[in-house]
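Margin note from the TA: students keep mixing up input and output lines. Inputs are the sequences; the output is the structure of the whole complex. Example:
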Amino acid sequence: MHCKDIQDLITAEVDGELAADPRRGLQDHLRECGTCRSEFELEQSTKSFLKRHLKHIDTPRPLRDQITSQLAIHISPDTRPPNWFGSMIRQRSPRPALAFGSSLGLILILLTLAPPGSRHSHSQPDDANIIHQTFNNFDRVLNGGLTPEVASDDFNVVQSYLAKHVNFPVNLPRNKRYTLVGGACTRYNNEPVANVVFRQNRKFIYVYEVNFRCVEHGRNLNLPPRALDQLRATGWYFENPLPECTLAVWIVDSTVCCAVGDIPQDRMLAFLKEPQ
Amino acid sequence: MILPIFPLSIQSKTRSKHEEFQREAVPHMDVLYNYALRMTSNPDDANDLVQETFMKAYRFWDKYEKGTNIRAWLFRIMKNSYINRYRKETKEPETVDYNDIQNFYNSIRYESTDPNDLQEKIFGGLLEDDVARALESLPEEFRTVVILCDIEGLSYEEIAEFVDCPIGTVRSRLHRGRQMLRAKLYDYAKKRGYVTHD
């Protein structure tokens, strides 16, 4: 065998891929040829050096979990644009949904007609006040303008999805009377916003969450001074544009959360405080 | 329990697809993660790449031919994602610096017979970071086979299927890849003063 034919055999032998026959030929040659022997030793020591210094690394647990959750989300093959209460509309006769829609319409009309100077207004154009945004987004949730990106009642699934898109810890109130519907991430003035929706039968609670840092400085987002004052004093802030409609603001760690639902204040409080 | 958006449209077919995917594709995450990590040299990019690969694989699961090599199929999806993400513009074909290799051969003496001794002589004292950096510097096609063979321990046959080329090509790329790495490592070791100039 000539040295120029040997190289392939050397590499294959180093990788344990050489059959018995050619191996004998290789060994015979290596005994006689110092150059090829060195070549063999070099390649072998390079491989074992690489093996020792470039270790196989197991997939990190969080990545594994995230992929599992994402697969769970993708279980729905439906390609129609999702909305928050599709399952309700499709499972029930359309009547409750329509009735629900019209009662909501009534609320909206009432709110729109509310006198100026009232503490919020749905007709208010988009501004940086997160209370206005919460009301507006609640409307968008109900009329399909804001669609869920993740639809699941599994807290981990929704949490891990949202956590990937926002710069603050997402806070999901856990209350066994309410089912988590899903979440979506949006942006306002470049600040990431987590949107979460819960429901109990036909009652929805929408939660708006942003990093408190950007509210504190009032640059990209803000809270009215009276809300900030009350938050600092009591940890809570409530608004009731109607007896049957409650907005609540509270802070967990660095996250400011703003929830709105067409429920009275005591039920909103129960939703937020009652442990699972 | 997962509450899907449209429960009525979820049929047992979807559920069995999901189970099948979990059973067949998900166990290969480690090989893909390691390849992604070594190709991107960045855990965040590796995370994204692995996620993208599995989501694509799930979406196109019906395109996977049952009974064929699932790892190779996943690997090709990842390779495409990698190319789309990190090689947006078509580069010039990779060139190899043969001077590096030549220098190495000129400066090393073949007198040692113990491979461990030889390692010490050539790469003595090099850190893991140096080795990772040397691997990063390899042209993609060489880096790929070295990762799959020397880190992941795949057979020539499987690597050939992964990269879609003949076994002979895999073997010669491995040989060349290791040559280049050796030259790089020797260079680093020299710069760090671990080995003395001949």
